[in-house]
Amino acid sequence: MENVHRFRDLNKTCPKDFYPLPRIDQLVDSTSDCELLSMMDASQGYHQIMLAPEDRKKVSFITSKGTFCYVAMLFGLKNAGATYQRLMDKIFRPQIGRNVEVYVDDMLVKSKKAEEHVKDLEETFSVLRKYKLKLNPAKCASEYKVVAS
């Protein structure tokens, strides 16, 4: 049986992080002049971000086997989405708008020329490796050809 812990009280006491999410319409528009796209999804995205050691006690829980605390960020935490988006914006800053777009745990590698796509993917994979972020292969799709309407 999976333990599910709710953090209503913790979320009530935390100030809201108003970090903005990208606008989907702008992300879609940014692909209009691209020849190839690859979509990627982070594997258990939020769980790849470690909590600061001093914050782990804030997400502790008690079971019949003892008291435990989470070491990674949880989906149910109030500011998890904003924290994740901020991280992705920071690590992909040199690429965003040029050959990558990021919406929380979804990444889109885009190439204006098909022959640039492998290089763009390699650059993205290099960033993911540097920060030890993993992808979910089942939710990744590569090399979609863009057809102009």
UniProtKB/TrEMBL annotation:
Pfam families: RVT_1. InterPro entries: DNA/RNA_pol_sf, Rev_trsase/Diguanyl_cyclase, RNA-dir_DNA_polymerase, RT_dom. Residues 6-141 form the Reverse transcriptase domain. CDD domains: RT_LTR. SUPFAM superfamilies: DNA/RNA polymerases. This is Reverse transcriptase domain-containing protein.
